[in-house]
Write a structure and sequence with these properties.
The chain is of the alpha/beta class. About 50% of the residues lie in helices and about 10% in strands. The protein folds into 3 domains: about 5-60, Orthogonal Bundle (Multidrug-efflux Transporter Regulator, Chain: A, Domain 2); about 80-125; about 135-345, Rossmann fold (3-Layer(aba) Sandwich), CATH 3.40.50. It contains 13 helices and 10 strands. The longest helix has about 35 residues, at about 80-115.
Length: about 350
């Protein structure tokens, strides 16, 4: 039995594992871990708890749903092959990126050998191959035409801001200037998902992709709904090369939001970029933002949108945190806020 001195509180354990305290609570709710309690009732994590949690974190990184993890921890190998196949695809994508970078280095070395010095931009691209200017445009009202440039398009970009900050207009402009981007507005599930279901009947391949994603989400605690089906149909459809989603949490309960963001993160590098407006701390958990994710803040004073680092003390961090509401609050105010924002955007 570990001594009290060797035990960690949830915040310490989450920091050591590289996850959020919320993730640890979710693991506990699913019966995957069972931390001890102090006499006062506080959770504490000893060495055995930390080993178990580290295994869960590793399996999540491989793309396993929480249901699959429960089976694996119990010795059941069902579902291993699809998850491993997905992880293999992620690794192969990374290998492809590394191979292209190696080839670029080889070319620069050849130029240097011939007396040609590479530019600073070429050297910088070796560290961040995707850091070339990808999006640049004049900002719409309320910014008055100021220039906006997004130098790197990440797999996931969160767009946040207080009411009336112009974030919806920024998102719509992004959907216009991004090549082959699809705008998924607040009216996407106005028919309760009927149009999405009809599209699935017409496209068997799309039906298979949506069924696979739905199964994974339900295993991770999502609640089936017309809003979820519509969103998945649009995100899995062929054609768009990027997506811009207005209030991605619309119509989704807290558990579904948590499962959805986990699903979007497991797509790996090379996935089609998603820009998502959100006010939900279940979607944007500041403690869980990954390396290929970005946060764009539209300030209340209508200064230009800015990218915010996801750690306390960073410029704009507190403003982002203030914009995020719990899923319960989002559920109580969803209709009112949607109407208010529509009026402001008009």
């Amino acid at each position: 039995m570990p001594t009290i001195a060797r035990r960690l509180n949830p915040s310490q354990a989450a920091k050591r594992l590289g996850v959020s305290a919320k993730a640890l609570r979710l693991y506990e709710e699913r019966g995957l871990i069972d931390p001890a309690r102090t006499p006062a009732g506080w959770r504490v994590y000893g060495p055995d708890d930390m080993r178990r949690a580290a295994e869960i974190v590793a399996l999540r990184a491989l793309g396993f749903s929480l249901l699959q993890i429960g089976r694996v921890l119990e010795g059941d190998a069902r579902g291993l092959e699809p998850a491993l196949a997905a992880h293999q695809g992620v690794l192969e994508s990374r290998l492809g990126q590394l191979a292209r970078t190696v080839e670029k280095v080889r070319g620069l070395r050849a130029e240097v050998a011939q007396g040609q010095a590479p530019s600073l931009g070429e050297l910088a691209s070796l560290l961040a191959p995707m850091a070339n200017a990808r999006v640049a445009f004049d900002l719409p009202w309320p910014w008055g035409g100021e220039r906006f440039e997004l130098r790197e398009v990440c797999a996931i970009t969160f767009i946040v801001g207080p009411l009336g900050s112009g974030k919806t207009r920024l998102a719509q402009r992004l959907a216009e200037v991004l090549p082959h981007a699809a705008w998924l507005g607040l009216d996407r599930a106005a028919d309760g998902g009927a149009a999405a279901r009809a599209q699935l009947r017409r496209e068997p391949a799309l039906q298979q992709r949506v069924d696979r994603a739905t199964t994974w989400l339900i295993e991770d605690g999502a609640t089936p709904s017309g809003a979820l089906t519509t969103l998945l149909v649009q995100l899995e459809a062929d054609g768009p090369q990027a997506f811009v989603v207005d209030m991605i949490e619309q119509g989704l309960d807290a558990a579904t939001q948590e499962a959805l963001i986990a699903h979007l993160r497991r797509r790996g590098p090379g996935a089609r970029p998603i820009f998502m407006l959100t006010r939900s701390c279940a979607i944007l958990d500041l403690a869980a933002v990954g390396a290929d994710e970005a946060i764009l803040l539209c300030p209340a004073n209508h200064s230009p949108p800015t990218q915010v680092a996801p750690h306390a003390g960073a410029p704009g961090y507190e403003a982002v945190a203030t914009c995020l509401a719990s899923p319960e609050v989002r559920a109580r105010t969803a209709g009112l806020m949607a109407r208010w924002e529509a009026d402001v955007a008009a």
